[in-house]
Amino acid sequence: MRDFLIKLSKIERRYIYLALFLALTLPLIFPPNFPQKMSPTVKSVFEFIDTLPPGSHVLLSADYDASVLPEVDPMYRAVLKHCILRGVIPVGMTLYPQGAVLALDAFKEAEEYLGARRDTDYVFLGYQAGFQAVILGIGENIKNVFPKDYFGTPIDSIPAMRGVKNYKDIALVISFSGSSVPVTWVIYAYSKYHQKVAAAVTAVSAADFYPYIQTGQFVGMLAGMKGAAEYEYAVRKIMKDKGIEKLPPAKAVKGMDANSIGHLLIMLFIIIGNLGYFASKRRK
Amino acid sequence: MIWIYLIINLLGNAPPRVFDVPNDGGNALMLEWQLPPDSLGKVDSMLILRKTLPEGKVDTITKVFINHPEFVDEGVNYKKAYQYSILYFIGPVQIHSEWSPPTKPVASWIDTRKIPLFILMILYTTILLVYIFTARKGRELYLRPIAGLEAVDEAVGRATEMGRPIVYVPGLSSISDVATIAALNILAHITKKAGEYETKIIVPVRDPVVYTVAREVVREAYYTIGRPDLFDPGQVYFATDSQFGYAAHVSALMTREKSATNFFMGMFWAESLILAETGASTGAIQVAGTDAVTQLPFFVVTCDYTLIGEELYAASAYLSKEPLLTASIKGQDQMKLLIMVVMILLSLLSVFGVNITLGLF
Amino acid sequence: MHISTDPWVWVAAILTLAIFTFLYKDNPLFKFAEHLFVGVATGYGLVIIYFNAFKPNLYQPLFVEHNLLYIIPFFFGILYFSAAIPKFSYMMRWPIALLLGIGSGLSIPLSFQTYIVEHTKSTILRFPYPNAVLFINALILFIGVLTVLIYFYFSYPHKGAIGTISRIGIIFIMIGFGASFGYTVMARFSLLVGRIQFLLGQWLGIHSVM
Amino acid sequence: MFQRRIPLIIVFITGVLMSIQYFIPHPISQSAYNIALTWFRGVASMAYAIAVISFVRHHSRRLKQPQNRFYSAVALLAFLFMCIAGFGFGIGEGTVFYKMYLNVQVPLQATTFSLLAFYMASAAYRAFRVKGFEATLLLITAFIVMFGVTTIGNYIPFIPRLTEWLMAVPNLASKRGILIGVGLGMISTSLKIILGIERNWLGG
């Protein structure tokens, strides 16, 4: 027994590599679909949107470019679908020039899978230059900043925008980003106009944002692939409950399941490595 | 378009107040205004007009937000003067304010907000110079021993015992990176040490300028110990400037040459673990040193010894046995002490309700 | 399952596999890929540096706009070629000096700002705190920064009280390292998942993995 | 004289000017700054010439070694091919140069980068052993955070919060402490370079 344990502390690295390769590949081919329990910060965002009265407006700012796509894009898609499923009107915009095309694709997906209609179920405003000026401007009058939407329709003639003037008429702003833009939203929209703000960010930048959660400046936060997967899972569940048969690809859930198994594998290796280490130490 | 500006001028509307924005290059003016009295109706929107003097050219600058009664015009030049006027739209009526008196933006020669930082810089320079002059006078300065140093020499010794080469990676950054400078200092020491035992040292480099300097450092080191014959122009070379191309190359190098000792000193990014873990898999002794906080965990886990952050700079001072470098470590220490005192003092003051902002931007 | 018919995808897939073979052991296929990588990357670097750095910053202002101010950097740049002539190779130090001077000069005030002032400012305790948790966190942070700084204080040996304090410092450092290590695993796994998805999905055509 | 003094004078003058300009917002200082930056980029770009010379020399030398001949020829040919493609036929989208970049360099880069996943696993297995106090601390925090970032971690009530706390408090404290010291070292080295005290870059 002890010899076996000692052997465990000296597994050749090639076997570790092989095990890891399988741990990350098999879940991609045979998705395990682990049930995802929401972490507290994700839950606060989800529940906020879930309990909004239908017809409320949520501003989804796609403040990211292609470099952080794998983590942030699934979040945008999931939150957007959640809004539509709940009858909340998502208003898409971006502070990054590249963001418009990326976000538009998410709206197209919502059209395809949920039959969302432009200008009645959602609004897409597109890109406007200048971070601070745009955020402050919306507090004044959204029409000043976005006189027309992305497709050139004047804001006044969009049915879904009726009665929306400034932050007072917007229930929540979510900034999707891989940088510090969510903090800019906090500084100008939260501090000046008391607008509720949430963040959806990459895992790397999330570490800098935890203090804002503690002080309540963010309603909640979706962090990294994990946050994306948790939200995506919940939204897919709503879709299934509603009897929608054709579901969009579960990118984040799939990636996260593979990732979780990979993490567990490393942890397992650490444990058996230490068992073997103890066994060999006791022999001496 | 001109006719828009020719509108009934009601009751002599006050012009906007114009201020120079201080501490800039004379490229901004700030405007403040008061909305016309409510009796005239609610303002729907407004435009700011700017007249550039001496030409007298009028531009419409921007649409602004009504309830935010200030605006910074960043499109001005310190060589010219400007007048401003505001055009209010109230229903079908347009109201034109008077022109503000001509204002010239001022280009400042010093940014007063940065003065505290400047003082701090002078202070630090002085502390450093004081120590450096003390050292020049030949006074011995005490520094505590650091554990990693013996590790460096032991690692060189081991390569000698095994009769296998040393691989020295001077980081992936450029010559203006402090870590690279420290790495080159350490390279000089290690080359001398290795040269005494005729142990081969291979230095693949990623940055072209660092390559030329590293080559000179190695040549010079052999020359100092009286063995210029040991220098082989092929032992220091530019590998490639692609981060992962370099990582792939050095991984292969360590595996093929079966190096007994690997040094990773300088600035590293994500490739750190590729290098260190491949090196570990060949059973080599490894000593790392970097000030890249994000990569330190990986070196600490995979290397036999790691110089953490400042220890890298300190090691370069110790090993080069240059009293002036030791003096500067001493100067850094005193500055560190000062920072700690400031932190504690300001925190204590805050306990008693006095919150001092450092006034540093 | 529809295996890709795009030859470029095949090239990318074979090279991907070639790199992976290094995990088993060094072999001719990897050695080929490594040398190809180094060659292509160096060629790419030269072409890109020419078009993105040399052309706009030197060639354009000097030879097209005839701005004579740019003779100076061009002259300095030419000196690099003295590397090829041993007798004059010391001249190469001039451009290096120019780069170092500009680089060091720029970095002094900026490093003060980003490394010293910002970190010091956000570490100092600021009362009042909205709740006890925030205060305790700020206090731990404060103690952590101070003890780590003392660990790096070289003028006094790690003995007595200083020894104890720097021991606390090293505890913070180790916890920090452990946390960053654990936190980075996800990002690296995601990269590998991306490569596996490329191999299985784009190359072998198992689209369900994407 | 020419060997050491002139470079030291150049470093001193440019260094002092560049550190002072930070405090002067006047357009004259700003345009000097912009010119210095283009000079910097221009001169730095020409340094690549050295890279190319060294690269070609290094691999030509290896052409004489039978075991390396083939591979160094591959490196040289690949280099030459990219140069001809880039300078001869342009670098825009759809060119051979761009395709080589996208289908040769990018996958090689991404795959080498992804090797890190394997190395993370083997490094953790090999090094995370309960020996000594510090190693144990490292192991435990890494373990908690790894658990905290997975889906399963959410089922244990305190794990997600603890992970956040570890990242936001002790991790931040250690980073800050290290960075303050590193900053001081950077500044002092830059000063020493400008003042001509640190001369190692002159080569020995």
**The CATH class of the largest domain in chain B:** Alpha Beta
- Gross morphology of chain B is elongated
Radius of gyration of chain B: 32 Å
Total E-strand runs of chain B:
13
| Portion in strands of chain B | 15-25%
- Strand element count of chain C: 0
Helix content of chain C: over 70%
Question: What gross morphology of chain C would you assign?
Answer: extended
Count of distinct structural domains of chain B: 3
> Structural class of the helices, strands and pairings of chain B?
alpha/beta
Largest sheet of chain C: none
Task: Give the distance, in angstroms, between the N- and C-terminal Cα atoms of chain B.
Answer: 44 Å
Q: Which residues of chain C sit in consecutive blocks of at least 5 with pLDDT less than 50?
A: none
Average pLDDT over all residues of chain C: 93
**Arithmetic mean pLDDT of chain B:** 88
CATH topology group of the largest domain in chain B = Rossmann fold
- Assembly state here? heterotetramer
Keywords (chain A): Membrane, Transmembrane, Transmembrane helix
Transmembrane segments (chain A): 15-34, 170-190, 261-279
Transmembrane segments (chain C): 7-24, 36-54, 66-85, 91-112, 132-154, 160-185
Keywords (chain C): Membrane, Transmembrane, Transmembrane helix
Describe this structure in words.
The complex is a heterotetramer of chains A (284), B (361), C (210) and D (204). Chain B has helices spanning 2-5, 115-136, 148-162, 178-196, 208-224, 243-257, 272-281, 296-302, 310-320, 323-351, and strands at 17-20, 29-32, 45-53, 57-63, 70-73, 81-90, 93-96, 166-169, 201-205, 236-238, 261-265, 285-290, 305-308. By secondary structure, chain B is an alpha/beta fold. In chain B, helix 4 (178-196) runs parallel beside helix 5, helix 6 packs parallel to helix 7 and helix 9 (310-320) runs antiparallel to helix 10. Chain C has 210 residues and is mainly alpha-helical. Chain C has a domain at 131-209. In chain C, helix 1 packs across helix 2 (28-64) and helix 5 crosses helix 6 (160-203). The model of chain C has no long low-confidence stretch (mean pLDDT 93). Chain D is an all-alpha fold and 204 residues long. In chain D, 78% of the residues lie in helices and 0% in strands. Classes of the chains: A alpha/beta (284), B alpha/beta (361), C mainly alpha (210), D mainly alpha (204). At the C-D interface, helix 1, helix 2, helix 3, helix 4 and helix 5 of C face helix 1, helix 2, helix 3, helix 4 and helix 5 of D.
List the SSEs and their pairings.
The complex is a heterotetramer of chains A (284), B (361), C (210) and D (204).
Chain A: H1 2-8, H2 13-29, H3 40-50, E1 57-63, H4 69-85, E2 89-94, H5 99-114, E3 123-127, H6 131-140, H7 142-145, E4 172-177, H8 181-193, E5 197-201, H9 203-214, E6 221-223, H10 224-241, H11 251-283
Helix pairs in contact in A: 1-11, 2-11, 4-5, 4-10, 6-8, 10-11
Chain B: H1 2-5, E1 17-20, E2 29-32, E3 45-53, E4 57-63, E5 70-73, E6 81-90, E7 93-96, H2 115-136, H3 148-162, E8 166-169, H4 178-196, E9 201-205, H5 208-224, E10 236-238, H6 243-257, E11 261-265, H7 272-281, E12 285-290, H8 296-302, E13 305-308, H9 310-320, H10 323-351
Parallel strand pairs in B: 8-9, 8-11, 9-10, 11-12, 12-13
Antiparallel strand pairs in B: 1-2, 2-5, 3-4, 3-6, 6-7
Helix pairs in contact in B: 2-10, 4-5, 4-9, 6-7, 9-10
Chain D: H1 5-21, H2 27-46, H3 48-62, H4 66-89, H5 96-127, H6 133-148, H7 159-168, H8 170-194
Helix pairs in contact in D: 3-4, 4-5, 6-7, 7-8
Transmembrane segments (chain B): 115-134, 337-358
Domain Fibronectin type-III (chain B): 15-111
InterPro entries (chain B): DUF6754, FN3_dom, FN3_sf
